[in-house]
Amino acid sequence: MPYLEQSDAASIVVISSVSGVESDFAAGRYAAFKTALINYSKGLSSQLAAKGIRVNSVSPGNTYFEGGVWHRIEQNTPEPFTQAMSLNKTGRMATPQEVATGAVCLSGDFIQ
Q1: Considering the entire predicted model, what is its pTM?
Q2: How far is CA 91 from CA 17, 73, 81, 85, 105, in A?
Q3: pLDDT in tens, 96-106
Q4: Buried (b) or exposed (e) across 48-78, using 16+ Cβ within 10 A?
């Protein structure tokens, strides 16, 4: 915290999930934890704003990458994969690079 307080562009980015915002197939412990992260981020944001520290959370939907959970589901149990894909309004899942780009943009010193 002392380093963040000394920074001219202090930022905290928390990675949550769409499961923390809406009820979906991941309801349960995973969704409860992701919901808690969003709430924690909101609380931190209120506490740290006066110190010039920005706090944001990124809540991506399903994220696909080779070797990841959705890749394994696609290969081993295609029915849940097809169902998940049908719920994605873009017709595809996010990529790790897209999630990372959002986090980097939020953490950047773009306010001068």
Answers
A1: 0.80
A2: 18, 17, 12, 6, 24
A3: 999 999 999 99
A4: beeeebbbbbbbbbbbbeeeeebeebbeeee
Q: Which of 3, 30, 40, 64 is catalytic?
A: 30
Supply the DSSP string of 29-98, one letter for each residue.
HHHHHHHHHHHHHHHHHHHHGGGT-EEEEE----B--TTSHHHHHHHH-HHHHHHHHHH-TTSS-B-HHH
pLDDT in tens, 11-34: 999 999 988 887 766 678 888 999
Q: What is the largest CA-CA distance in the chain?
A: 51
Catalytic status, residue 30 = yes
- Contact between 70 and 92 (Cβ < 8 Å): no
**Is 33:19 a contact under the CB 8 Å cutoff?**
no
Say which CATH topology domain 2-107 has: Rossmann fold (3.40.50)
Q: C-alpha angle 56/38/52, rounded to 5°?
A: 30
